[in-house]
## 1
Amino acid sequence: MKGLFVTGTDTGVGKTLAACALVHALRARGLRVAPMKPVAAGAVATEGGWANEDTIALARAAGPGAPALEAITPVLLREPMAPHIAAALEGRAIRLEPLLEAHRRLAARSDFTVVEGVGGFHVPLGEAFDARDLAAALGLPVVLVVGLRLGCLNHALLTADSVRAAGLRLAGWIANRIDPAMAAADENVAALAERLAAPLLGRIPFQPGADPAALARLLDVSPLLKKGSESFPTK
Ligand SMILES: Nc1ncnc2c1ncn2[C@@H]1O[C@H](COP(=O)(O)OP(=O)(O)O)[C@@H](O)[C@H]1O
Ligand SMILES: [Mg+2]
């Protein structure tokens, strides 16, 4: 099983944009890529029924032959709020095993899965279960999207520590310029390059409405495809 778990320094830092760009970059290598957004909170009405915007973006990035929206996102919650709270509102509980099963199905029909995490790495999904537990159970290497803004150094370093503490490998990180007014952005990227023991896969400029297919050219996915960089079971 090959794939990635895309996490971020926070919610709204560009995980979906970066995950879509990664899907394009991996497809450009000739791989059949299945995206997944296992749990999504916030549903919008579409012609085909209720769906989440991240799910739709990921399906679009996967192109022809993309999995069905329900396969990409097995747990769709109505309200855009912390997932365990959105689930409780609906009288539901998020369980790990169905998410793993849904991932196995996607992995069986693809060469590579790109799994967008929910919020940041410690976001609770249930009473004793969070995004980090999901990543660990999937056993996928992690890509960290750093939303460049004040505070991102602390968030990035805490997340990297937590990835390792979960027994997972930080396979790379992406610097995403979400705040055009951020001072010393390059110096922040340099500070992280010195401290994160993982390759910088690319820098995404501030570009509202960016096309993830075009951004894919800014990402170097080769470190993710190196031999020995496969996923591995951890627990
Ligand atoms: N580099 C960028 N330049 C401009 N806008 C961006 C950039 N990265 C993300 N955004 C915007 O910020 C918002 C959050 O990005 P998104 O990828 O949905 O983050 P996440 O998945 O981490 O919640 C979206 O509206 C997105 O279009
Ligand atoms: Mg997202």
## 2
Amino acid sequence: MALTAQQLDRHKRHILLKEIGGPGVQKLLGASVSIVGAGALGGPCAMYLAAAGVGRIELWDADTVDVSNLQRQVQFTTADTGKSKIRQLAERLKAASPDCEITEQLARWGEEETLAGHILIDATDNFETRFALNRVAHASGRYLVSGAAMGWAGQVSVFASGVEKGAPCYQCFVPETPPDAEACEDAGVVGPVTGIVASHMALETLKLVTGAGRPLIGQVLLLDGLTGISRSVRLNQDTDCPVCGA
Ligand SMILES: [Zn+2]
């Protein structure tokens, strides 16, 4: 379907890029993603994807906005305190991008629940859900865009074990729940670091949809907010991995 005059205007800055162009914007308009978690990673990631014209965004989160979220979850305002994260985020996304179809799932996603998106985005804060999302992505042959932030550090990767032969999955990277996992969930985190990770997750999703550049498959991007230096490390498939191993 041809882009309307309004869409040409709205997406002009993407259309001007040779790696995206009109065809890339059309792919974005036809794309669907599931974002699990509407907090510090899922919120800004969803905002960039809606602004980029992603046609359908499914959001999962059971939480309400707490005043302690506002230090980093910039999609919310003080007036949102006590309200559903999903409801408030969906309003924000629709206001920014009226064509974007938002599915609001006001629940904590569980492995038995179907995810509608063609690309899965892990914006959760617990290992149980991360492992479950990884299993679903692998079994259903979908890309999993994954990000995490703690303290001053962040990491981003794309797991494609169900899509590309030999590509590692999340569990090749994190074989089991780390012993300090519970402490991680309550640890401090710098607001802008979560924003950088969330933006990287949106960027990787945009690349997967449009085919631009090279996604972070088999690579983990590590960000250090204290030094301002980021680097990527290679990640190989673990042949003994319980999810994707031979
Ligand atoms: Zn694996």
